[in-house]
Amino acid sequence: MLTLDYQIEELYRGETATILEVKKRGRDKSEFREFFEQLQEAEKKKLLMQIKKYADHGIVNKLVIRKIKDDIYEFKSGHNRVLCGLCSKQSRRTLVLLNCFKKQEKKLRKMRKRKPAKCLMMLKK
What is the pTM of this model? Predict the structure, then answer.
């Protein structure tokens, strides 16, 4: 069985949640960081503001972050999507940013949901 080693780094710590990013060992940047750097400045600012708002206040707007499967959530910012996994349900939540993409189709395919679910299971072990 092939197992991948991950390195977890804290992106932002707010009052109610901690946001983490995951990168595979041996890579310079996480998938989120690579995706984020390709965005235009206005998109970067908006996405980062939404992530920080969640970390500081929790779910304020269900149009910005929504639950799509068990412990998998999705940040939405225009056509940009960041799938993340909820690792801790205690008073201080921990969200791990797992998969990023630009949405081009109306419905989120099952393949997009499986990748973060699989990664989240490996991280919880």
Answer: 0.74
